[in-house]
Please model this.
Amino acid sequence: MSKREGGKKVLLGVLVIAVCIAIYVIGNSGKFGEYKHDYKVKVESFDNIYEGNNIRFYYMDGKNDYQKNLKEKYKLNEVIGSAGNEIEKAMAIIDWVNEKAEFNVSAMEVGKTTDEIMEKLENSKALSDEGYSIVLEETLSTLDVFVRKGTYLTANTVKPDPSQSYKVIEVWSKVHAKWVMIDAGNKCYMTLDDVPLSAVEIIENGLDKVNIVGLKNEKQVKKYKKDMKKYFNMYTMPIDSNKYRELKSNSYVTYVKNLDDVQLENQKGFISPMIFVNKRDVFDLNPEIINGNRNKDTKAAMILSKKDLKEDKEGAVGFTIGAFKDSVMLEKFYISINGGKYYEVKNYYDLSLVEGSTKITLSEDGVNPIREIVLKKMGK
Model:
């Protein structure tokens, strides 16, 4: 065999390998970002979605001593200058932060308060989405702005790159009479038909269909949508956001578009006590009207809270079950396990899951079932 023929065969072999690799990559392109979560407890069915809008949220009001001092120390009225509406005030605060910081979604935590963050920024400029959201929430609430911090979440099946979550804020726009999501790290917000959108509205409409205000050019917009689309899947926020007074609730509310995403753990472990919804009604509530636009709940719903991991014995996994209705926890309700008789419960029910599936049924009268959850304790 001549050298020329040998060279042709080598070249042909290389081409065949290249074609095979290309076919594999194309066929599996959607799988490279996939993630297989190793569940300890998996939700098999969840007839416990909250349908009402009767939840009271608590926001920072800027009236505590820490925030009063914050406003004076950093001369926040001068920072916002002539900014008129809530969105303009938010953008002015972001510009002020950007004089000291550079956004880095992978940055390490530098503090839990504005003071701590500003002090650390004297030596390190990198600031994460969490850091930006803390500063925006604490400062804007001293400037007569209703503001809340929320978190976008990917599905458990998406590879965390760099994280499963992304922090943003929402401000209540008095001009538009609605909540508006602001991505502080990227200094942008979103609109549809020139109307600014809330965090949940963006999920409902899809990131591809909305306009992004604040990014410099179409190239940045395309990159943002490509990189961030995975996060616009679920949205969660605490019922009580005011960390500078006694906590009213340790529960969160999470909007899910896909019911398959309802789980009691994420990629970091078991989640906080959670109320799941698939409509945005509770996220739309006007913070200026404490008891307005709410209807009485037609039935209670369960909230599951993971017990301390140290209390899990002999392979069992422990939860506490409460029931809420009309924004308060019920003092009496009934629980049935695996179709058995109803047990009257005072305040909370202690649940211990062993390997296999467990059906939990809630009743308000001990006769009629109103909610049902099936959990599977995975064998480990």
